[in-house]
# Entry
Amino acid sequence: MTSRLVTFRVPPWAAGLCDLVGRLGSWWLRQFLALFSEPVGEWFVGRGRKTLVLAAEQDAIGLQLLTDRGRQLASARIGLADYSPACIDHFLVSQGLARDHVAIGLRLAPEKFFERRLVLPVEAGRSLNKVVVDDLVGKTPFRIEDVYHDHCAIADAASGKITVAQWVTRRKFVEEAVATLGVDVAGLAFVDSRGEDGQHAPPPRIALHREAGARTSWVRNAALALTAGALVLAVIAGGVKYNRQQTVLDGLQARIAVARAKAQEVRAAIDKLQQKQTALLGLRSKKAAGPGLLDIWEEVTRLLPAHSWLTELRLFERPEKQEQGIVIAGFSAAAASLVGIVDRSSMFTDASLTAPVALDAAEERERFAVQAKLKRSGQPGQSR
# Structure
């Protein structure tokens, strides 16, 4: 006795991914097979091997030749009086087949199957076959050596549960049908039953030998291979697109770096130009606010009497007070009168001596030092 084993090779947290991959593989396989004619598609899926279903009825033996996908190719109904095991070979020869190239199954009435459902946590997927068998032994009156059993399972990633459908039939039912058909149990690949109309669940089907399920493993392998191919192509396409985008981004970053350096140079040049412009505007503002050096020189020359001459003419500036002025020093025959002369000028104001008047014996003149502020633009009395 053997059973179909649904193996879960992924951890529980990857159940959603497995479900997605399974659906993608099924879709890909359907689209791939749709490119070919139905016989060719069946050859791809089942390598052209057919299934012969034998059914022992009350007054006849039914033979039904199916494809691996369940499509009926031929059928026959032979009366019990005319039936013999050789009829199977004759039927297959009429279809151009040999018994070695056909999987033979036995069909029993639905009432000869016991069906039950289990809902298990997804963590049980790693040892699902053992869990189902232990549950059958522990919760039902069946003895393993007296029955054939099999199951199929569907994992739901959203709920984190596995729904298991299990079928059981007694060995004596199979042996009675085999005795009627005149075949050997070892030559049977499976035992099944016709599904009831409107039934959404899959009809009972119990694999009797590992080889019977091995034929369908090609379909799963093909689906997984096609799915893996699709994923590889998707990864390659994504990688190529990412590489192109990364190349464009790298080129843009290089251009941005060059443009940034140029922009910084332009900004530095603009800052220097603004500084020079500010300095120029300051000079122009100062020039507009007060007289120039030549104007001051001319005014001082005009003011000093003939008995006086200069040894120093110096400009000074006090930014905190926004003041400008001059300091003149030299010799004069009447140094004390120079303060009044300078103060009466239209260009100067607040004239005063910065040092006591002293007689210079060598020059026979008085040494003086006078300080005065420059009048601002717009002040009364300033010459234009």
